[in-house]
Write a structure and sequence with these properties.
heterodimer, A: mainly alpha, ABC transporter involved in vitamin B12 uptake, BtuC, about 80% helix, B: mainly alpha
Chain lengths: ~290, ~280
């Protein structure tokens, strides 16, 4: 048991740290309705990595990481700044377009790099069991830095997210928007590198979605999504270890099942309530 | 002459795919459920994966066969699509306070990772993520084109007959007080017919091309018109010209066709947006 704990400790630590920041961001992402943004960011980062490889840098070198972050920051800043009233399509549609074109470009580059198609599918699963303490500490530092920025500006960020559909005065908020998306971009690139796209996606969306079903109070949303995200990760790792399934997919399936259960519970409860109230009303009338 | 012979089937497939996808694309943009096709494709693939595992267990020792075309795979894919259509229509509900796109995304993540787990456990086949992503429209057969034509005609026919219902539903999708009768039923029919098209389309050209045909021409047309008919025509012309161009250059320069089409469509989109901006600057 102790041996298992020592072996699983870095993975659990990484999951707890990342689940903390991701489920926080998830509340904003959900309210803004830009669900697939992390997949688009991950794709841009992968495109950056492949471009770096094309220039002949080694895979894990600083240069490649620099290009990868550079690509991400440029694209996400454009996304944050170029929002305007005249947009005929939603932000989520723009995310879809960015994802699609980035993936297309990556596929073209893959032809030019030996074993290039591996880089396209590489980010899909990820494996948290191979995470090292060094990566965990790096992630912790990043999360604390980003967390501080968000604590300072928390009220402003919440205000922007809540009024995202109301396009008046979008021009005045550009710097805050930039800050929001750039910090988000850094977190996502780091998290996807450790956990893979799907785990990051589900830690982002699932806890926030479950909580949003039951409350719209931001403080409660943050607290409960932390609880759900962190607990879900730990239980998922335990299940994956006990039943010998891959850890990422185990957490994803666990948390997404919770979302469906919660959503159906909510929908059915309302239907039952309505029936019982209408019966109640009928009884009163009689 | 050879190039025309070789390219005729892929070109026909492209035209059919664009026609139906531009129409669905406008719906999808209005409903803000952009990633629905990737999710449905993955859900269908999850069904097909289970079929592979079942067949593997039943024919132990027959070695690994490609059973993507088996009837069991199709039946399971279709029933998974049906179930998820029911779920999506049911959870589009005033009481559910999260966007439907979130539910769709979660289904996508679930379907993909559950397939990974099952394949891991059953040790029957490899994950065809990459194949499914790209596909190759160049190798489409006439039999596939005819099948696609039948499906497009059938689904297109349903949507043409009931166009008022479907359009009304998508136009009023974002406002909460949707007073339409039987909206659940029409929603379900919408997802189901869309799913039937997606299964066939992804088989022929891969998820990425289908996604591109769905979103890019419809987004381009949204900048120039609000009328459904005009948007379908603009999107169809753009899509056809670009895919003819893409097929020709992919043949001539030996580059994969899907990325080529996507990137050219992307360039058109950017040019369109810049043009739009310039016009609005002139006006003001």
């Amino acid at each position: 048991m102790i041996d298992n704990l020592v072996f699983l400790a870095p993975a659990i630590a990484a999951c707890v740290i990342l689940a903390g920041i991701l489920s926080y961001f998830g509340n904003h992402i959900l309210t803004r309705g830009i669900i697939f943004i992390d997949i688009a960011i991950a794709q841009i980062a992968a495109l950056g990595t492949m471009t770096g490889l094309l220039f002949g840098f080694a895979e894990e070198s600083i240069s490649v990481q620099f290009i990868s972050y550079g690509f991400t920051i440029v694209v996400i800043s454009l996304f944050a700044v170029l929002k305007s009233k005249k947009m005929a399509i939603s932000q989520e549609a723009i995310i879809g377009i960015i994802y699609c074109v980035a993936l297309g470009l990556a596929l073209l580059l893959a032809e030019r790099i030996s074993g290039g198609s591996n880089y396209i599918t590489k980010t899909i699963t990820g494996n948290i069991l191979w995470v090292t303490w060094k990566q965990v500490i790096f992630a912790l530092v990043l999360v604390i830095a980003v967390g501080l920025v968000h604590v300072i500006f928390s009220k402003k960020f919440i205000e922007i997210s809540e009024n995202i559909r109301d396009k008046k005065g979008a021009e005045n908020k550009r710097i805050l928007e930039l800050l929001f998306y750039v910090t988000f971009g850094f977190v996502i690139v780091k998290a996807v590198f450790i956990q893979g796209i799907f785990l990051v996606f589900i830690l982002l969306i699932a806890p926030a979605a479950i909580v949003r079903l039951f409350t719209s109070n931001w403080r409660q949303r943050f607290i409960w999504s932390w609880v759900i995200g962190i607990l879900g990760s730990i239980i998922g790792i335990y299940i994956s270890y006990e039943y010998n399934v891959s850890n990422g997919p185990a957490i994803v399936c666990l948390l997404s099942t919770f979302v469906f259960l919660a959503a159906f519970a909510k929908a059915f409860k309302k239907i039952l309530d309505r029936k019982s109230t209408s019966k109640f009303v009928q009884n009163i009338k009689e | 002459m050879t190039i025309l012979e070789f390219m005729l089937a892929p070109l026909m497939a492209c035209l059919l795919l664009i026609l139906i996808n531009v129409y669905f694309g406008i719906h999808v943009l209005k409903r803000e459920i952009i990633f629905i096709d990737i999710a449905l494709a993955q859900i269908a693939a999850f069904g097909a994966t289970i079929a592979v595992v079942i067949e593997h267990v039943m024919h132990e020792g027959h070695g690994h066969e490609h059973s993507e075309d088996s009837w069991l795979a199709y039946v399971l894919a279709l029933s998974f699509i049906t179930v998820s259509s029911l779920v999506f229509s049911f959870l589009k509900n005033k009481k559910i306070s999260i966007p439907l796109e979130a539910i769709i995304g979660i289904s996508y993540a679930f379907a993909t990772t559950a397939a990974v787990i099952i394949l891991d456990k059953a040790a029957g086949g490899d994950v065809h993520i990459h194949d499914m992503l790209v596909g190759s429209i160049l190798w489409v057969s006439w039999a596939q084109v005819i099948k696609l034509f039948v499906i497009v005609a059938f689904v297109g026919g349903i949507h043409f007959i009931f166009r008022k219902k479907f359009i009304q539903l998508s136009d009023s999708y974002q406002n909460k007080e949707n007073k339409m009768n039987n909206s659940f039923l029409w929603d379900f029919l919408f997802y189901l017919t869309f799913g039937v098209v997606i299964i066939e389309a992804v088989n022929i050209s891969g998820i990425l091309t289908v996604f591109a045909f769905l979103i890019l021409p419809a987004a381009f047309s949204s900048m120039f018109s609000k009328s459904w008919t005009t948007r379908i025509i603009i999107g169809f012309i753009l899509g056809s010209v670009v895919s003819a161009f893409g097929l020709y250059f992919s043949w001539n320069m030996d580059v994969p066709v899907a990325p080529l089409i996507i990137i050219v469509l992307g360039i058109f989109l950017i040019l369109g947006a810049i043009y739009k901006r310039l016009i609005s600057f002139k006006k003001s």
